[in-house]
Amino acid sequence: MEMSGFFNPAAHGLQIHLKQVAVLAETRLRLFASRHLNGQDVPETQRVVCFKQMDQFVDNQAINHKDRGFHDAPSGLKMSHDKIPLAAKVAGTAFLAVLVPIYLHTYGPTNFLWFCDAALLLTVAGMWLESSRLISMCAVGILLPQCLWLADFGSNLLGIHLLGLTSYMFDRQLPLFTRALSLFHGWLPLLLVWLLVRLGYDKRALSAWTGVAAGLGFVGYFFTPPAGAHLANPNLPININYLYGFNDQQPQHWVNQNLYVILWLGGLWLVAFLPTHLALRKIFAAPPPAAGRKLPIRFF
User: From CA 263, how far away is CA 173, in angstroms rounded?
Assistant: First the structure.
């Protein structure tokens, strides 16, 4: 193998992931060295020095340089480590800085047990961490339900009562600005799709969101008011995640309530979570292996 055969990313015009560059560089250099440095005329000390230099190149020097070792490569090859623009992260955080205190004051902390509200918090966290798993979890959990929310909201705008999911959006007793904040139900699915394009879809999202949904359902069922509860503060949420049916005025009477919760969560998994997972796995690429930010922490 001639040195001219060494893979040149700049010549190929490719944007290669850091890990792939490291593995490729190490493999090619070791093959080159084994072909040219194994002759008897080359002292052992020179071979040792060569391999040490290769280790430094792969582990510390060129690969960890700010332009990933391609100092003379086209600007397109000098990849930014951040896959999500800082402006998007700041915008999401600013929105939460406004929404969270208003929601806490108006609805109380249990409002964040709703799947959609929990997904909003996890999404912003996932943006900062650039975590494909967190983003994928939220997408599995709310993409289809939010489509129902949008359909119900649109029908209410037309004067048609569909499911009652968005009746609170037309409650004049709630401040208009508070209701306007809930419009995140409309743009959050679009944001999640954009994030999946940038980060990829993590196939572990289905099992992860199943655990989150089960936990939220457990807390909501045993520690929050049921449908039909009369509270001193009428804005406090009841029937969270519709664990008592779609009628907030009274619990469902079709089957035993405990059985209904199991059937409801199982139905969500089968009808919403699983199909979304299968679709996203087909549409979006998987995240790069071992993707994640390594923080340069020094203890000494």
Answer: 34
25: number of Cβ within 10 Å: 19
Residues 287/201, Cβ–Cβ less than 8 Å: yes
Q: Single out the residue of 198, 194, 197, 200 nearest to residue 289, CA to CA.
A: 200
CA distance 130 to 83: 7
Q: Give the pLDDT confidence of 55-65 residue by residue, as tens digits.
A: 554 444 444 44
pLDDT value for 44:
54
Query: What is d(CA 108, CA 121) in angstroms, rounded to the nearest whole number?
Result: 15
Higher model confidence: residue 100 or residue 18?
A: 100
Handedness of CA 16, 17, 21, 24 (dihedral sign): negative
How confident is the model over 194-236, as pLDDT tens digits? 999 999 999 999 999 999 999 999 999 999 999 999 999 999 9
Amino acid symbol at 120: L
Question: Rounded to whole angstroms, how far apart are CA atoms 257 and 262?
Answer: 9
Global confidence as pTM: 0.71
**Residue whose C-alpha is closest to residue 237's, from 122, 118, 138, 156:** 118
Residues with Cβ within 8 Å of 165's Cβ and at least 6 positions away in sequence, in order, are 148, 149, 152, 153, 246
| Phi, psi (deg, nearest 5) at residue 228 | 90, -5
Residues 53 and 47: their CA atoms lie apart, in Å, by 10
CA angle 177, 182, 185 (to 5 degrees): 155
Specify whether the CB–CB gap between 141 and 273 falls below 8 A: yes
Do residues 69 and 21 make contact, with C-beta atoms less than 8 angstroms apart?
yes
Report the range of poorest mean pLDDT among 56-70, 176-190, 256-270.
56-70
